[in-house]
Write a structure and sequence with these properties.
This protein is mainly alpha-helical and 65 residues long. It is 58% helix and 0% strand.
Length: 65
Amino acid sequence: MRRYCVLALAAVAAAGLGGCYETATPKMYEPGVYKGSQDSLGNKLDNEELDQQLSERFRTAAQDR
């Protein structure tokens, strides 16, 4: 009986460890080329008015320090 318990425990441990396997295929990226989804914030930053607001906000915060 003890032998069966040890074998069952070893089988469960082997199955559990086998489920943790992950393939390690590296992702190849080209330097300087963004291949993700389009960033909606990027379009907002092209706005001159928003750029001025952010610059003013930065100057105000930087003077406090």
